């Protein structure tokens, strides 16, 4: 299988920009994908944050399930401020603002004692397509940050005023290299890696194999899959969706795209691919 690596030049530039501007910020919000929270954790960003207080926002929780809840509990056990979130649901706003206020409560008190009225500043960071800009738009009450359904939409920094906060929206940045290709593939599944560099046939077959291991009933319900090799399962997707060519040959390309699209849009139900073993292997805790 082709190794997944994606670290274009604008990401290196973005990392330098964040390092230069971090001193202006009081705290950091790392936006993770709730379907793959460990995979979407960028150790380089955490190291860059240093001693700044950090909130881990597991976004897209509406596309995840109880496995995400278990990971949040594990993160909290290991001293990480973690909150599940759905940026496309306005009722989540209160949860987020409460978590952000708690994160900077001590700093806010010190500023108050000094008589300073300056807003508290947050760096909003994460890998591509985790929903950073959507989070900012929810906080600001308007479309002030550019959003999109593919990786790499935000390419430059922008400050956004949000009531008592100022938010620094930053481009999504990947680690310079992926040591764990299992996690890298999960980022490809959720759309955090540029689709143009991927071998979609390999990604689709790997996704089917992982879903059959963790969520077999979902594949049976949507596609009538009852087992077999990943290729046989893909052929079942093609049959169920009517993706057949002349002579009843399978239209694998359409089947692959449909499978990945179904997964990304939550049509297979809420899922979380990462588990405790991934959390420990990534060196995030015990």
Describe the structure.
- This protein is of the alpha/beta class and 286 residues long.
- Helix content is 44%, strand content 12%.
- It contains 12 helices and 6 strands.
- Strands 3-2-1-4-6-5 form a 6-stranded mixed beta sheet, sandwiched between helices.
- Strand 5 (158-162) and strand 6 form a beta hairpin.
- Helix 8 (200-214) packs across helix 9, helix 8 (200-214) packs across helix 10 (230-241) and helix 10 packs across helix 11.
- The chain is elongated and about 75 Å long.
Strand-helix topology:
Elements: H1 9-21, E1 27-33, H2 43-49, E2 54-59, H3 66-77, E3 81-84, H4 93-103, H5 105-113, E4 120-125, H6 132-140, E5 158-162, E6 165-169, H7 181-190, H8 200-214, H9 216-223, H10 230-241, H11 252-264, H12 276-281
Parallel strand pairs: 1-2, 1-4, 2-3, 4-6
Antiparallel strand pairs: 5-6
Helix pairs in contact: 7-8, 8-9, 8-10, 8-11, 10-11
- What is the end-to-end distance? 30 Å
CA-atom Rg in angstroms = 20 Å
Helix-strand sequence? HEHEHEHHEHEEHHHHHH
Q: Give the number of DSSP strands.
A: 6
Task: State the helix count.
Answer: 12
Which blocks of ≥5 consecutive residues have pLDDT under 50? 147-155
Q: Tell me the structural class.
A: alpha/beta
Helix content: 40-55%
**Mean pLDDT, nearest integer?**
90
| Largest β-sheet summary | 6 strands, mixed
